[in-house]
Design brief:
This protein has helices at 10-20, 26-57, 125-143, 189-198, 202-211, 215-226, 236-240, 244-247, 281-289, 291-294, 301-306; strands at 2-4, 63-73, 76-86, 90-97, 103-105, 111-114, 119-122, 148-149, 152-153, 157-164, 170-171, 183-185, 268-271, 278-280. With 310 residues, it is of the alpha/beta class. Helix 1 (10-20) packs antiparallel against helix 2.
């Protein structure tokens, strides 16, 4: 079940483009253009990850999906790209990264990204996700929103995964030197989760059976967590150092109301070659990156499952 959609980032893009129209130094222009590039890259990466997540879990009553959850606690904040929660109260915290050229993980656990010419050091998304989980755990405990049984809160388990683009190259250290199994390609996440749940340890089975909740309880828990979302913005003027008089952005407009549609809330962007029904932009994007699989056709989710494998 889909609990929360991704936030609209068009307001951030509009602010940055407005700043580009102001008198700027070469350094300020470079910083703004870099922010725009990073924002565009991040949105594309999250769009890709969101598609794979929703394709499998959007209509499942055993899973709850939350995108773009921003939490605040005691002066700290965490921007979580995606959350998957199942009826065993397992919370999969997913960090989505669009490393176009690929990444390298050395035996010490340091992450390096290829910029087209050389490897450069980057912040470890594994450590970033660890901090997200720590803050998420505190918010759940403080708000008292975990499901209870006989008045006692049920334990919530957290699992961390870093999702990279399906086409990105991942260079890992020699097997056994360092566990990098939490870094997965976006199209392999569901397979990874299935393999884990299909071969559970006895301890996991016992713990899961003692705290399994109903679909209704799962939905209530996920909605309570999504309610804690604090939408925040970045003061790009202050970050880049543009004079306030030239960089004060217009107030962000409220998100437009969803367009009426008989097939769902997403904007229609194409037509299925199999059954003729309209499909949204996420389906079109998926079919395009999987053109070899679908013979270059745009197919709805149902027809994708029926289409013969190439």
């Amino acid at each position: 079940m889909l609990i929360k959609q991704r936030d609209d980032r068009s307001g951030d893009v509009a602010v940055l483009r407005r700043l580009l129209e102001q008198p700027l130094t070469a350094k300020q222009r470079f910083l703004i253009e870099r922010e725009l590039k990073c924002l565009d890259s991040g949105v594309r990466g999250e769009d890709s990850s969101a598609y794979y997540i929703e394709f499998r879990y959007r209509n499942s009553q055993n899973w709850a999906v939350i995108h773009d959850l921003r939490l605040e606690h005691e002066g700290f904040s965490a921007q979580i790209d995606h959350l998957l929660i199942n009826r065993f109260l397992e919370v999969y915290v997913l960090e989505s990264k669009n490393y176009y050229y690929g990444i390298k993980i050395n035996p010490e656990g340091e992450f390096l990204a290829w910029n087209g010419k050389s490897y450069v050091g980057i912040e470890s998304p594994v450590e970033q996700n660890r901090r997200h989980i720590e803050l998420l755990e505190k918010v759940i405990k403080q708000a008292g929103i975990a499901p209870t049984r006989l008045g006692i809160p049920l334990p919530v388990t957290f699992r961390s995964y870093v999702m990279v683009a399906p086409g990105a190259r991942v260079d890992r250290p020699i097997k056994g030197k360092l566990d990098t199994s939490m870094v997965v390609k976006a199209d392999d996440l569901m397979k990874t989760i299935d393999e884990r749940l299909d071969s559970p340890s006895p301890a996991f089975v016992f713990a899961a059976l003692t705290k399994v909740v109903s679909a209704e309880t799962l939905e209530s828990f996920a909605k309570a967590l999504a309610f804690k979302h604090k939408r925040g913005g970045i003061d790009y003027a202050a970050k880049i150092g543009v004079p306030l008089i030239a960089a004060t952005p217009p107030p962000l407009a409220a998100p437009p109301p969803p367009a009426p549609s008989s097939g769902g809330s997403s904007a229609k962007a194409g037509v299925c070659a199999g059954c003729g029904t309209e499909v949204d932009s996420k389906v079109v994007y998926f079919c395009r990156i999987k053109k070899e699989r679908f013979g270059g056709k745009i197919l709805c989710r149902e027809c994708q499952g029926k289409y013969p494998q190439a």
